[in-house]
Write a structure and sequence with these properties.
Layout lengths: L2 E5 L2 E4 L4 E8 L7 E7 L6 E6 L6 E3 L7 E6 L4 E6 L8 E9 L2 E4 L3 E6 L1
Parallel strand pairs: 2-11
Antiparallel strand pairs: 1-3, 3-8, 4-5, 4-9, 5-6, 7-8, 9-10, 9-11
C-alpha cells in the first residue's frame, strides 16, 4: 500500500509559478513510476507528466511541455512538479499517482488556481 499526500497548490496570477510536491509513504514506493494528472471543473482527468523510478524516462503532455518540470527525490520518497508560466487554463486539481506492477495509487489532490 502507498499513501500519497500532495502539497504546494494555491492561487497565483498568470505567468506565475508553483512547486507541487507529493510525499509518498509505504514500502511499495520503491521502483515505482510516479506522475501527475489534473482535472478541471467539468472536464475529465488528464495526464500532465510522469517520471520513471530511475528518472531516465520522463513524459509531458503537450500542453505543459516547456513550462512544467517533473522530478523526484527517491531518498525523500517525494516527486515534484515545478509549474512555470502558468495560464488560467492550468487551473485544476492536481493529483499525484504512483504505479507499480499494475497497481495505481492516487493522492487526494491539490488545487491550483491561476487568475488572469
Amino acid at each position: 500500500q502507498v499513501q500519497l499526500v500532495e502539497s504546494g497548490g494555491g492561487l497565483v496570477q498568470a505567468g506565475g509559478s508553483l512547486r507541487l510536491s507529493c510525499a509518498a509513504s509505504g514500502r511499495t514506493f520503491s521502483n515505482s513510476d510516479m506522475g501527475w494528472y489534473r482535472q478541471a471543473p467539468g472536464k475529465e482527468r488528464e495526464f500532465v507528466a510522469s517520471i520513471s523510478w530511475s528518472g531516465n524516462s520522463i513524459y509531458y503532455a503537450s500542453s505543459v511541455k516547456g513550462r512544467f518540470t517533473i522530478s523526484r527525490d527517491n531518498a525523500k520518497n517525494t516527486v515534484y512538479l515545478q509549474t512555470n508560466s502558468l495560464k488560467p487554463e492550468d487551473t485544476a486539481i492536481y493529483y499525484c499517482y504512483s504505479r507499480k506492477d499494475g497497481d495505481v495509487y492516487w493522492g487526494q489532490g491539490t488545487q491550483v488556481t491561476v487568475s488572469s
